[in-house]
Structure formats: structure tokens, C-alpha cells
Design goal:
Elements lengths: L1 H7 L17 H19 L6 H26 L7 H22 L7 H26 L5 H20 L11 H9 L1 E2 L3 E2 H19 L1 H11 L1 H6 L4 H27 L10 H11 L11 H20 L5 H25 L1
Antiparallel strand pairs: 1-2
Helix pairs in contact: 2-13, 3-8, 3-11, 3-12, 3-13, 4-5, 4-6, 4-11, 5-6, 5-11, 7-11, 8-9, 9-11, 12-13, 12-14
Length: 343
């Protein structure tokens, strides 16, 4: 028997089905925990599985999930972006101010034009933040943590300066259309923000798994020097990833402001912590090289289900932050144990 194994090597690195593909990822462990949590919550609270509550959960996790998709791209490359919360506020403010400005000068070239111009303005403002972060990290070789921490403060300050700290409100002939495309529901149940999330996740999944660009993103996070030696334009891919991250945050900001009906200056304060937590819980490795769209969404759903469960149980909301922190530590610990077991 020993000779047979030695000649055929059938006993070398045999892997079971649960050690391959999605089942071997942290996302699978988190999904299993999420299913258990949903079952427990359904038993403990009769209001949990009602249509209204499910719709609220879907809307709430969609508010951070699109930005989580973007920051997952950055984390895969081994970077970090702490400015996403401020970028959300900037994009919402730029969109609202543009709508107000167009309304003041009565500039409406065609029906819906004020909305289109305002959305473009909001997304361009967000993209400018990402371009700044990308150039600083890729070309100036600055630390992503320090750079985006500075951007967080700068962008938030710009929002307060632009609105005098009072925030702003969308106005004009396209206001109702703006609210419909950001805060509306399909069939009176599915939030439109969830549809945007599914589209963004599908695009990200295809880009990461079926394009050369996706392979370059993972290559940079796994070993940047090796990627550079194999011909990957590391700087260009890094800049693109930071711009996409900010665009995702900007889209999130526009959606949230539509639901609120305003763009307060303190919008999305400290959201970056929840967004990064969701990405890490979903399996993105802060060391780079690991992450995906499905994991990002699963992480967001888990956080929202826990938060919703605490609300239904009437637990002090301050405990939510404590619990999220504990979940992050647990997720990292599980990933560490899993990696050690798989060698």
C-alpha cells in the first residue's frame, strides 16, 4: 500500500469538497452564521420575518453595501480607504447643491436634464476624491491609511464649508423624479437601492473573475512586486480601484440623500468603520489578495440583521458598535484558524 502511494502520489494534498471553492472561503462560514441567526431571530421575534421588516432590512443594508463593494476592491489590492464616509456626504451635497443651483437659474434644457446634470456632478465630485487618493498612493507612494485619513478630514471640511454646516435639500422640477429613482420601491416592496446593489455586484463579480483587469487586482494584493515584474501596470490599476471605490461611495451618498430627502453635513459620519467591517466580515483580507462581491454583501446583511435584531429586542443602540467590533475580531480569528488548518 505504501509503495502504491509512493509511485502514484495519490496521498499527497488530497482536498475534500468543503476545502475548495466558495465552501473553503470565510464568506461560507459567515453565510452559515447568518442563516442560523435568521432562524433564531424568526423564532424569538414574530415581527422579524414580516414583509415590512424584510423590506427595511433590504433597504438598510443596501445603503452601505454598494460602498462596501467599492472598498472591497481597494482591500483586495492591499490598500484601505478611510474617506468613504466623507465621500458619501460630499456626493450627496454636490448633487443637492447642483439641483438647487439649476433651479435658481432656471436651466432645464430638456425634461430630466436637471437630475442628470446633478447626478453627474455628484459622481464627478466623488471620483475626484478617488483620483486624489489613487494618485497619492500609487504615484507619491504615500501610505493609504494616512492619505485617506487626511482625505476624510478634508472632504468633510469641504462639505461643512459648502453648506455652512447646515446641509442642503434637493429642489427644482426634477425633485420628485430624484426621490423616485433613489428612494422608490418596485412592486411596493423591493427598494430600488437593492436593484442598484445587484447590478453593481454583478458587474464587480464579472470584472474580478472573468477579466484580465480582475486578475491584475488580485495579483497586486497577493504580491505587488511579482505583479509588476509580470507586466501589470500597478499604478494605473491602483488609481482605477480608488476611483471606483469613491464612485461607489458617491452612488451610495446620492441614494441615501434621496431617502432622507436632504443632504445633512454630518451625513454618513463614521460610516467608514461599518463599511470596512462589512468587507472584512465578508472575507476580504486586509493583507490583500482575497475578497469578492458576494462576501461584501453577506457581511452587510449580517451586520444589518444583527442591528435589526437588537432593535426588535429593544437593546441599547450603543451596544451595536460593541457587537460589530466583536464580530470583526471573531471573523479575523475564524479566518486565521481556517488558514492554519488548510496550511
Amino acid at each position: 500500500m505504501t509503495d502504491a502511494h509512493a509511485s502514484t502520489f495519490t496521498n499527497v494534498r488530497q482536498t475534500r469538497f468543503w476545502q475548495k471553492g466558495f465552501l473553503a472561503s470565510q464568506s461560507a462560514y459567515v453565510l452559515a452564521a447568518l442563516i442560523v441567526l435568521i432562524v433564531v431571530m424568526s423564532i424569538l421575534s414574530p415581527n422579524f420575518m414580516t414583509g415590512g421588516n424584510i423590506s427595511n432590512i433590504t433597504r438598510n443594508f443596501s445603503f452601505i453595501a454598494i460602498a462596501t463593494l467599492g472598498i472591497t476592491l481597494v482591500i483586495i489590492t492591499g490598500g484601505i480607504d478611510l474617506s468613504v464616509g466623507s465621500t458619501i456626504a460630499l456626493s450627496a451635497t454636490a448633487t443637492s447643491l447642483t439641483m438647487n443651483g439649476l433651479n435658481t437659474v432656471e436651466f432645464y434644457p430638456f425634461p430630466g436634464s436637471a437630475l442628470i446634470i446633478s447626478l453627474v456632478a455628484g459622481l464627478l465630485a466623488a471620483a475626484a476624491v478617488g483620483l486624489f487618493n489613487g494618485l497619492a498612493v500609487a504615484k507619491l507612494k504615500l501610505s493609504p491609511f494616512v492619505t485617506t485619513l487626511g482625505t476624510l478630514s478634508m472632504v468633510r471640511g469641504l462639505v461643512y464649508v459648502a453648506t455652512q454646516g447646515r446641509g442642503t435639500f434637493p429642489a427644482g422640477p426634477d425633485k420628485e423624479l430624484f426621490l423616485a429613482v433613489t428612494a422608490g420601491k418596485i412592486f411596493e416592496f423591493v427598494p430600488v437601492s437593492f436593484i442598484y446593489l445587484i447590478i453593481c455586484a454583478a458587474v464587480m463579480w464579472v470584472a474580478l473573475n472573468h477579466t484580465a483587469w480582475g486578475k491584475h487586482v488580485f495579483a497586486i494584493g497577493s504580491n505587488e512586486n511579482a505583479g509588476r515584474l509580470t507586466g501589470v501596470n500597478v499604478d494605473r490599476v491602483k488609481i482605477q480601484v480608488y476611483v471606483l471605490c469613491s464612485l461607489a461611495a458617491g452612488l451610495n451618498g446620492i441614494i441615501i440623500s434621496g431617502w432622507l430627502g436632504s443632504a445633512p453635513a454630518n451625513l454618513a459620519t463614521a460610516y467608514e468603520l461599518t463599511i470596512i467591517a462589512a468587507a472584512v466580515i465578508g472575507g476580504a483580507n486586509l493583507a490583500g489578495g482575497v475578497g469578492g462581491a458576494a462576501g461584501a454583501i453577506i457581511g452587510c446583511v449580517l451586520i444589518e440583521v444583527i442591528r435589526n435584531g437588537l432593535v426588535l429586542a429593544r437593546v441599547d443602540p450603543y451596544w451595536q458598535q460593541t457587537l460589530v467590533g466583536a464580530i470583526i475580531v471573531a471573523a479575523v480569528l475564524v479566518d486565521r484558524l481556517r488558514s492554519s488548518r488548510n496550511g
